Amino acid sequence: MTTSPGTLDDGRPGESRIPPDGQRRRLLLAGLPKPVAHARAFTAEALDDWCWSADSYGVDRDLTQDVVLVVAELVANAMLHAGGPLELVLDASPSRLRIEVSDGDASLPAPRRPHRPAQPGGHGLLIVQRTSDRWGAERHARGKTVWVEFDAARPAPGR
Q1: How far is CA 142 from CA 32, 60, 76, 79, 150, in A?
Q2: Please, which residues have CB within 8 angstroms of residue 98's CB and are 6 or more apart in sequence?
Q3: What is d(CA 94, CA 28) in angstroms, rounded to the nearest whole number?
Q4: pLDDT tens track for 60-86
Q5: CA-to-CA distance for 32 and 159, rounded, in angstroms?
Q6: 55 φψ region: left (φ > 0), alpha (ψ -120 to 50), beta (else)
Q7: d(CA 82, CA 103)
């Protein structure tokens, strides 16, 4: 027996499985070995569950790859510059996906200026900035949270 998204849950193929009031998933990363790999797998699974995956009918493959790339960049930045990530939060609504990576360092990130494409390193935040619809960072009592948002309704590539 084969199924497609929505076949067993009375939805249409490609229809988001995100409830109208949204869904939130949290992955604790503090002390976890290979946090980037865990964060990527966790994100890919959530996107698949929510029909945001590249295998879902009607979903832009580039968007799903961009989301996983940005998660990897944020977690790697927390490892390299902030003593390691504390947690990853994915907050999905029918209109957008918000990604949050928290760490224990209160220093806010800033893209390197000027950007030097020929030099190794220093490209992560530029990738985040150019790939996402919005991003920012907020300090809190335990350090900071870097957040990124992707709109669910994005123009198709080439339009």
Answers
A1: 18, 36, 19, 16, 26
A2: 89, 90, 91, 92, 147, 148, 149
A3: 24
A4: 667 889 999 999 999 999 999 999 999
A5: 41
A6: alpha
A7: 6
Q: pTM of the full predicted structure?
A: 0.81
Q: Residue 50: what pLDDT?
A: 85
From first to last of its 159 residues, the chain has per-residue pLDDT tens of 333 333 334 444 445 567 677 899 999 999 999 999 999 999 999 998 888 755 554 556 678 899 999 999 999 999 999 999 999 999 998 889 999 999 999 999 987 777 666 676 667 898 899 999 999 999 999 999 999 999 987 654 544
What's the chain's average pLDDT? 82
Closest C-alpha among 88, 97, 35 to residue 66: 97
Residue type, 122: G
How many C-beta atoms lie closer than 10 Å to residue 75's C-beta?
26
From 75, 15, 14, 12, select the one nearest 43 (Cα to Cα): 75
Helices within the chain (DSSP H only):
35-49, 61-81, 124-131
Residue 147 in contact with residue 107, Cβ under 8 Å?
no
